[in-house]
Amino acid sequence: MNKAVTLKGRKEGFQLILDASASIDSILEEIKELKVQLKNDTQTGHELTFFVKSGIRKLSSDEKKQIEEIIEDDHFTISSFQSEVILIDEAIKLHKASRPKLEVRTVRSGQILDIEGDLLLIGEVHPGGTVRATGSIFVIGELKGIAHAGFNGNENAIVLANFRHNAQVRIGGNVHVVEKTENSSEQSDELKFVYVNDLHIIEVSPLHNLKTIRPEIGKHSGGLF
């Protein structure tokens, strides 16, 4: 008969590997037995950390709570629950976040365009218009208004555009005004990107530096991975 729970040691503590096909009652019963055994084999006062792995089984909040009530006390704690599956709602959210959203439109003064994930805008942002995204923003067109990338706090986001006009760029909580004079000595059609450097300061850089500074930008496949 297969065990419902397998105990394995690791550097940081112990893994509790749950059999995905076992009933929750069997799992809880075996966890109780394992805890008694560990209590007998462990020196008094020694703290142990557990990492619960459920494989292709998604534990409910109630099931996690039942396991916590058995394991956790003054000396035993659960560090995390790990599963190889996710709920449909979580999968959809990850999909939206990883797949750039294409918008073909003009954002006029007073209008705000909000996007979850990355935004690819083909069009114009007029003065007084705002585009916001939780991810990065790529503008193919004229940016004259405000582009706020990573507006939920993601400072790894960037704003890529042709800054031929004055524009305000925000990344996370950082604000920078890109002035037309910054491009006056260079080609007017050169794309640049704005990013937050390691010192948490906004910088403007030519497009050819993008792969070096943000190598992860080119790895989006439009799916979950």
TrEMBL record:
GO biological process, one term: division septum assembly
Classification via Gene3D superfamilies: 2.160.20.70, 3.30.160.540
Source taxon at top rank: Bacteria
Entry coiled-coil feature ranges: 17-44
Boundaries of every Septum site-determining protein MinC N-terminal domain copy: 5-81
Function (record text): Cell division inhibitor that blocks the formation of polar Z ring septums. Rapidly oscillates between the poles of the cell to destabilize FtsZ filaments that have formed before they mature into polar Z rings. Prevents FtsZ polymerization.
Protein name: Probable septum site-determining protein MinC
Annotated source species: Alkalibacterium olivapovliticus
Gene: minC
